[in-house]
Amino acid sequence: MAAPVTFPTLKRLVPRVDPRASGARVSWIIAPAGYGKSALLAELATALRAARTAVAVASVAQCEGHLGLFLDGLARSLRAVLPHADVRPLLAGAGEAHQQSWLRDTIATVLGGEELVLLLDEAHLLAHGEPLTRIVAGLVGAPPPGVSLVLAARERPPFAEPSGAQVGRAELELTEEEVHEVLAARVAGVDEELSRRVWEKTRGWPAVVSLIAAAAAAPDGAQGLLERLNAGDGELIGEAVEHVLAGLRPEVRYFASVAALLEQFDLDFVVALFGSGGPGTPEERRRLIRLPAPALGDAVATLADKQLIVRIGDGWAFDPVCRTALADGFRRRDPEACREAHRRAAELLLARGEVGISEAFDHLVRAEAHERLLGLLEHHAERLLEVGDLRRLEGWLAVLLEHYGAPPFWVDYYLGCVLARRGDWDGARARLDDARAFVEATRGDLLEEGARGGVEGRSVAVAVHWQPRLAEAYADLLWRRGALVEARTWAQRGVDFLAQQARRGQLPAAAEAWANQALMRLEARGGRIAMDAGAADKAREALEQALERARGLGSAHWEGRILADLATNAARAAQVTACEAFAQAGLQALGEGWPELRARTLAAAALARLQVGDSAGAEARGA
């Protein structure tokens, strides 16, 4: 295997972003993809560790913008460098809504005066209005004493003030001499003329220079590259990738083009992808060339040897710049085959169940399989909303909105729910109002057989099914805005509506289980609102009603969630015995799953002890 390319820029730029040298409390590395931002952070981390400086590393991309995953990863990173630090306050905050200063204050508490350099990668993925964005903004705006921050992003997030040290695209670009150094490390006998032309065409873009270095390392590659550069700019990245692949067998090149459509893959997956079986019509399957398993294994080994793919866990992934160039080229050359590859990848991921559903939806969008996406997303949107996959859910809903113009009303409903969680109150209200208008206009109409809202194989009146869900959505929106009285009114309106339908005999027997679930959610929402309003008795009454329904439905997740709220409510009222009973029951219901809910439950038990001055008991429960 060839030695990996290293960039001279890393050596000269580390002191620019090293807080020990610059004295800056906050430093930014801002440049487009392929400029070595993550590599610079990694080099800085290595230098800090060599100097025995405590350094923690976090990535917005790795946690997908999810608050709980971010805090869990940050806690693990802190524990690795400061083994004696108590990171429980970080873990306990995963399920709560926080003020902007919460992360800053919590890190200060965890560190207890220790110094730390925190490196945060992919900061441009912090979405407006998200809880994670709010607390990171507070941390960047005023780092706690002894803490320095170095953040990397493709562009500066809106919350970031133009202050502190900054390394940008211009500094990350390779100079002509550095381009020559990179090429000389890979190409025997490279002359200054080739280095000069590569620098002129790339302007020192590190990722492109790296790919060109690999291309020029092939037999006669340097001369061929010069001819291409003389012919004009073209798709420089694509050309560099083609040079790398030029000496490979056709089946390896074809495999690379198709596999580049995948975020990550293993051998079993690509064997199924290129096989002759699987779903789809014969005409659809003919669009993609079949490759036998031995050829696929050889292709993976060849691409790994060429450093075009790298190991990620049990699978493989392309370098992002290389992947984009390959995928774009394949899409231009053979759009039908590209769509078929995306369609097959989606079906294979769907066969894996919930674990592959989000990536499958991305492939369906690129396959332009709108009907398939429409049918599947309706049945999974509620779960995606519940687990907080808002960015991707919003994207898929937007695709349906654009394609259909006037999609089914549930698209408006879920867009309203997503916008409420993003803090776009007006946008959320408008979407929910549109969905509500449709439901009220079609009151009494029947849903299609087995097609809507999870009551499969039966018909249920539109209003009976959707009015309670809309009530919960409005209650959630108003609760997030802090309008607790109005939020409680909407939650109660949903409960009253279902009770009224049951009294009138308009609730079909087939819908009883669904109605119980809707009532459980509404009662739980009403209890949470009452708790936040300081009405502990009303909160407990509503939450206990919801708990009874959750147990009747056999939903361990909702049972644990409601018990966490009951424990929190009791802790706020300094009812220690009740809090601990709820907490113990909640932990038992959750088992080893749902770490955020477990953390909330344990935090409530610790808070109850603190309320009565039992700090030792609080620490024992927090452990």
Folded structure, characterized:
- With 623 residues, this protein is mostly helical.
- Among the domains are: 8-172, Rossmann fold (3-Layer(aba) Sandwich); 176-246; 250-366, Arc Repressor Mutant, subunit A (Orthogonal Bundle); 555-623.
- The protein is 65% helix and 6% strand.
- The chain contains 32 helices and seven strands.
- The chain has helices at 8-17, 19-22, 37-50, 67-81, 88-92, 102-111, 131-141, 169-172, 176-186, 192-202, 206-216, 221-231, 236-246, 250-259, 267-274, 282-285, 293-305, 320-333, 335-350, 357-366, 370-387, 390-404, 409-422, 425-441, 462-481, 484-503, 512-532, 536-553, 556-572, 576-590, 595-611, 615-622, and strands at residues 26-30, 55-59, 116-121, 147-153, 165-168, 309-312, 315-318.
- Strands 2-3-4-1-5 form a five-stranded parallel β-sheet. Strands 6-7 form a two-stranded antiparallel ribbon.
- β3, α7 and β4 form a beta-alpha-beta unit.
- α1 (8-17) crosses α3, α19 (335-350) packs antiparallel against α20 (357-366) and α29 (556-572) runs antiparallel to α30.
- The chain is globular.
- The chain starts with 7 loop residues before the first helix and ends with a helix.
- Residues 1-5 and 448-459 have low confidence and may be disordered.
Features:
6% strand, disordered N terminus, Rossmann fold, mainly alpha, 5-stranded parallel β-sheet, 7 strands, 32 helices, Arc Repressor Mutant, subunit A, 623 residues
